Amino acid sequence: MFDKALTATAVGAAMLLLGAGNLVAEPQFVGLDMAPTKVGTISDMANMADFCGTKPIKVALSDGWGGNGWRKIVRAEFEDEAAKCPNITEVRYTDGQGNPQKQIADIQGLIAQKFDVIVTYPDGGEAILKAMNQATQAGIAVVPYAVGESFPGTPGEDYLVVTTESVVGVGTTLADWTVKNLNGKGNVIVLGGTPGNPTSAAMAEGWKAVFAQNPGITVLEGPVDTNWDPAEAQRVMAGMLAKYPQIDAVMSDYGQGSMGALRAFVAAGRQIPLWPSQDANELGCFWKANKDANPNFKLAAVTARTWMVRVALRKAVAAAQGLSNTEPSIIQLPLAEDSASGDPALEPKCSDKLPPDAILSSMLPEDKLVELLAK
Question: Whole-prediction pTM value?
Answer without folding.
Answer: 0.84
